[in-house]
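Design a sequence for this backbone.
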């Protein structure tokens, strides 16, 4: 357990999957959590799960590709709870599957706007809020594809590489201000994003086989690393990238 009592966290994309697990664990460790998503039903369910477990949370609808939504999200956290200590910028989409020469301009812009611009927009407003109370911790959810390529996913790969670079840059800029910024690279995690593949057993077996550990990851396994990076136990860790990938990148 971590001592997050009196702390406040924002989690984007918290209506399901990794984001929901992160929000729940922040709350279990004592933080007040602002749950954000474009999926209002999923976000409300995350809040309900937190409250049923004795935690405190509030939902705020925010499209991270819209900078004014990101500004309003942070302002909501400040108005509701008076401070911001942690942020997990997790919202993202997979996008279309096409090689670079056939990738649609619309598809490219959508993925970049959500997966990369959205992380910047959130940090743009989270950092000043954290400076008000003397520091904080930001964890950006990148991907294994922030380190390597994946055929037919040029926008996703470019965005996640960008998230890793943006994370490192912000970490250097704000290290002396007591704001730590790190990124996490999950491999294939068992979340609703993969549910569309579950009907194709052969494809799922192929994806599982990409991981030396022999299975998909669980959202809670990613969330546990977010907790550690957010905590004082990681007080000397900033600008780092941590894979949660079952050995994927070690191959």
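Sequence:
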């Amino acid at each position: 357990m971590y001592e997050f009592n009196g702390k406040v966290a924002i989690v984007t994309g918290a209506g399901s999957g990794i984001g929901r697990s992160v929000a729940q664990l922040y709350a279990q460790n004592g933080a007040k959590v602002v749950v954000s998503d474009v999926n209002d039903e999923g976000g409300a369910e995350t809040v309900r799960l937190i409250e049923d477990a004795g935690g405190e949370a509030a939902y705020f609808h925010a499209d991270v590709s819209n900078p004014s939504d990101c500004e309003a999200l942070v302002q909501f956290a400040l108005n509701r709870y008076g401070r911001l200590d942690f942020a997990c910028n997790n919202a993202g989409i997979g996008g279309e599957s096409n090689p670079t020469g056939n990738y649609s301009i619309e598809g490219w812009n959508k993925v970049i706007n959500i997966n990369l611009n959205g992380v910047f927009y959130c940090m743009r407003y989270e950092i000043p809020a954290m400076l008000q109370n003397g520091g904080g911790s930001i964890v950006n959810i990148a991907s294994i594809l922030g380190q390597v390529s994946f055929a037919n996913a040029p926008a996703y790969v470019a965005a996640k590489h960008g998230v890793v670079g943006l994370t490192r840059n912000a970490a250097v800029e704000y290290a002396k201000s007591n704001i730590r910024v790190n990124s996490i690279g999950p491999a294939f995690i068992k979340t609703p994003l993969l549910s569309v593949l579950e009907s194709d057993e052969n494809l799922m077996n192929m994806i599982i086989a990409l991981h030396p550990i022999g299975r998909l990851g669980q959202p809670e396994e990613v969330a546990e690393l977010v907790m550690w990076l957010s905590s004082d136990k990681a007080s000397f860790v900033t600008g780092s990238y941590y894979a949660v990938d079952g050995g994927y990148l070690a191959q």
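The chain has one domain: 8-250.
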